[in-house]
Amino acid sequence: MHPKVTLSGPRARLTNAIDHYVDADLDDMYARLNRYTTLAAQQAVMQNAVAGRYDTVRRIFGRFFKSYVSRRGYKEGIYGVALAVFSALYPLLTYLKARAILDEGQANG
């Protein structure tokens, strides 16, 4: 899902912050969440690595805290809240989509 970065030239520290804009608006954020969770669910099923319910629920809270508090998402206003909520939903949606793929496979197989 994430492209690899190849460094050319000497390695050094940046002197300025990087503005990293991934999404144009909330619709783009939601579309990316939907796309990534679908891909993650498919990969989890293919690798026989679907997370359990307990781990999924635990990760919801951990991801929200990491995004909103640890990474200071609260400084980003409504987009920080949305990103934290979407980040928290990621493991849940991935789990639900993976279970749906497995259930569909059992029904057809």
Helix content: 55-70%
Helix and strand pattern: HHH
The helix/strand class is: mainly alpha
Mean pLDDT: 92
Ranges where pLDDT stays below 50 over 5 or more residues in a row are none
Shape: globular
What is the end-to-end distance? 29 Å
Radius of gyration: 17 Å
Strand content: under 5%
Number of helices: 3
How would you characterize the largest beta sheet? none
Q: How many beta-strand runs?
A: 0
Structural notes for this entry:
The chain is an all-alpha fold. The chain has a domain at 50-108. It has 3 helices and no strands. The chain has helices at residues 26-46, 53-70, 78-108. The longest helix has 31 residues, at 78-108. It is globular. It starts with 25 loop residues before the first helix and ends with a helix. 13% of the residues are buried.
Provide a brief overview of the structure.
This protein is mostly helical and 109 residues long. The chain contains three helices and no strands.
List keywords for this structure.
109 residues
Write the layout of secondary structure elements.
Layout: H1 26-46, H2 53-70, H3 78-108
